[in-house]
Amino acid sequence: MKKLLPLAGLVLLGACVKFGSEPPPSLLSLDSAASVPVGKTQSSASAKTITIKVPEVSQELSVQRVPVQATDTSIAYIKNAQWVEPPARLFARLLADTISAKTNRVVVGTAQSLVNPGATLSGELRSFGVDAATQEAVVTYDAALVRKDSQTVEKRRFEARVPVSAIEAGPAGRAINEAANQVAAEVAAWVGS
């Protein structure tokens, strides 16, 4: 009986200790409004290339939670709202899909860029969440473009705002997706063909 007592204590303690938080019922992702058709072949022999780097982010966006600008100086996160992966990676993939579809450029990965880097698009994802004061999803991207064979850096800020019906996972995710697609389309037009 004395040997079972410590074991019982461990079992009770195990019921109280929790590692990590409960996952939300579902995870949010981005869906590209523009994509290359399945089966279409793209070649750097006949099209320009571009390397898209994952944007830099501040600490509030380095997590998979969805931030809400509660006041000018405070950030909160939407309950049960979490991205499937960090927002910067999701947004880089959305940019790649949109630029490839709208400009006919071949988007190359880091390893492929050693052979043919083409233009390089980098930048900072400044906002990727909800503004509580205006009830809008806000996506702000400060882009930096170096065109092929150029030493000049072109910079431009892109922003889209989309109304959010409620500051909850579903409505916020849909509005951020729409805003991100608007920004990606504007970036694609700027990058050009």
Description of the molecule:
The protein has helices at 4-16, 87-103, 169-191, and strands spanning 49-52, 56-57, 65-71, 74-82, 106-108, 119-131, 136-146, 153-163. The chain is globular. It has 3 helices and 8 strands. The chain starts with a helix and ends with a helix. 33% of the residues are buried. Helix content is 27%, strand content 31%. It has one domain (46-191): ABC-type transport auxiliary lipoprotein component (Rossmann fold, 3-Layer(aba) Sandwich), CATH 3.40.50. The longest helix has 23 residues, at 169-191. Residues 38-188 form the ABC-type transport auxiliary lipoprotein component domain. This is Membrane integrity-associated transporter subunit PqiC.
